[in-house]
Design a protein that fits this description.
By secondary structure, the protein is α/β, with parallel strands linked by helices. The chain has 15 helices and seven strands. The protein has a seven-stranded mixed sheet with strand order 2-1-3-4-5-6-7, sandwiched between helices. Strand 1, helix 4 and strand 2 form a beta-alpha-beta unit. The mean pLDDT is 91. InterPro entries: 6-PGluconate_DH-like_C_sf, Chor_mut/prephenate_DH_T, Chorismate_II_sf, CM_dom_sf, CM_II_prokaryot, CM_T, NAD(P)-bd_dom_sf, PDH_C. Pathway: Amino-acid biosynthesis; L-tyrosine biosynthesis; (4-hydroxyphenyl)pyruvate from prephenate (NAD(+) route): step 1/1; Metabolic intermediate biosynthesis; prephenate biosynthesis; prephenate from chorismate: step 1/1. Keywords: Amino-acid biosynthesis, Aromatic amino acid biosynthesis, Cytoplasm, Isomerase, NAD, Oxidoreductase, Tyrosine biosynthesis.
Length: 377
């Protein structure tokens, strides 16, 4: 039996080695593609091309008896690596005549990411930090664009100091709230103004498929080049009014972070045995626990600022707390039918999205399960 297994395993090892060689060749071709895209200013993410390619590979897989979902999973992981490697080729500069870009807070994590992307695109970039304001006038007086990438609590104070920018300078902020920073930018600067909110952390390896929210302030034509530049990076731009953005962030960010925070506090106060929870967990609970743990691996000041950035957030959290209390009353009274009726009501609210989220979550759970390592017993 062992000889038979070893012979088969040797063949599998050989196939795996061929796969590694093929992946290396594919990445080399991707690097050439990146160079062509860089020369011609093409976005690194082409959604129509990606969708068509995946559809063809799925058909080909089915014809050869390979599960289509398997080949799509493999290719999506390979493409993620490919998008990251395309950064090495740099990007075409959409506005080569632009004067120097100044990133206020460019030494911070998110600031560094954008400094790097601008430099990869051929722009001259200067970083202005808190201790550098002695040279601020010299830098800002010649700036073609100023990007404010400082903590939320300092954003408006920094913007208020930017009152002597050149009239054609584009003023941009990267804060996760938009109404207050946008109003301060419009008051401080008479030129082009744009509010941006990158919906990703600074640890991403590529901006392909990443969402950046745009809240237009003034003179959109003057910063259209910046939007085009971000599209070349692979960014998906979504324009929305500042008030609508902040309302949405109360759910997307503040409430989500707060519930993770409270769940972490609860686990801590209950002195939960995390090792045992992981050993006994289903894939979905492990994923949920990972998202809670992820929060507590990061900067507490950042999340405090996000949650406390707007009264809207506290109001939203308060309403959530009230609904939590109402749901607890179902349990305390043993009202099973009311629970079921409420469940059906919410299910109807989600509509077709419920099925879509079920399919998406199955993929995430499968990936979480695949990544799990069990020690030998």
């Amino acid at each position: 039996m062992n000889e038979e297994l070893n012979a088969l395993r040797d063949q599998i090892d050989g196939v795996d080695q061929q796969l590694v060689a093929l992946l290396a060749r594919r990445l080399a071709l991707v690097a050439e593609v990146g160079e062509v895209k860089s020369r011609h200013g093409l976005p690194i993410y082409a959604p129509d091309r990606e969708a068509a390619m995946l559809a063809r590979r799925r058909d080909e897989a089915a014809q050869q008896g390979v599960p289509p979902d398997l080949i799509e999973d493999v290719l999506r992981r390979v493409m993620r690596e490919s998008y990251s490697s395309e950064n090495d080729s740099g990007f075409k500069c959409v506005n080569p005549s632009l004067r120097q870009i100044v990133v206020v807070g460019g030494a911070g994590q998110l600031g560094r990411l954008f400094v790097n992307m601008f430099r990869l695109s051929g722009y001259q970039v200067a970083v202005l930090e808190r201790d550098d304001w002695g040279q601020a006038d010299a830098l800002l007086s010649q700036a073609g664009m100023v990007v404010v990438a400082v903590p939320i609590e300092n954003t408006c104070d920094v913007i208020d100091r930017l009152t002597s920018l050149p009239p054609d300078c584009v003023l941009v902020d990267l804060t996760s709230i938009k109404q207050r920073p946008l109003s301060h930018m419009l008051a401080a600067h008479a030129g082009p103004v744009l509010g941006l909110h990158p919906m990703f952390g600074p640890d991403v390896s590529s901006l392909a498929k990443q969402v950046v929210v745009c809240c237009h302030g003034r003179d959109e034509a003057a910063y259209q080049w910046l939007l085009d530049q971000m599209r070349i990076w692979g960014v998906r731009l979504h324009s929305v009014a500042a008030a609508d953005h902040d309302n949405a962030m109360s759910l997307i960010q503040a409430l989500r972070h707060f519930t993770s925070f409270v769940y972490g506090v609860h686990l801590c106060d209950e002195q939960a045995d995390l090792k045992r929870l992981l050993a006994l967990s289903s894939p979905i609970y492990r994923l949920e626990l990972a998202m809670v743990g992820r929060l507590f691996a990061q900067d507490p000041a950042l999340y405090a600022d996000i949650i406390l950035s707007s009264p809207l957030n506290v109001q939203m959290i308060r309403r959530y707390h009230q609904r939590m209390g109402q749901a607890i009353s179902f349990l305390e009274s043993g009202d099973r039918q009311r629970f079921i009726d409420t469940f059906h009501k919410v299910s109807e609210f989600f509509g077709d999205y419920a099925g879509q989220f079920l399919r998406e979550s199955k993929l995430l759970l499968a990936q979480a399960h695949d990544a799990r390592h069990h020690e030998s017993l």
